[in-house]
Amino acid sequence: MKELDVRGLSCPEPVLILQKALDEDSNEIYKVLASEAHVVKNITHFANSKGKKVSVKEVDDEYEIMVE
User: Fold this and answer.
1) What is the spatial distance between Cα 28 and Cα 1, in angstroms, rounded to a whole number?
2) 3-state secondary structure of 26
3) When you count CB atoms within 10 A of the terminal residue's CB, does the N or C end of the chain come out lower?
4) pLDDT tens-digit readout, 32-52
C-alpha cells in the first residue's frame, strides 16, 4: 500500500496526483490522506471512473480514502 498525502491541496491537484500514481502502478492500493470534503468527492468520482473500489474513513477533521 502506498500513501498519498494531498492534505491542504486544492483541486484538481489531488486528482492529478492520484492519476499519476495509478498511471505508474494501477494494481497498487493507495491510501489518500485529504483534509477537505470536496477533495474526497472528486477523488472518489475519479477513482470510480477508473473502475477502482473506494472507501472513505473520517479521522478527526481529516479523511482517509482507500483506492483499490
Assistant:
1) 6
2) coil
3) N
4) 999 999 999 999 999 999 999
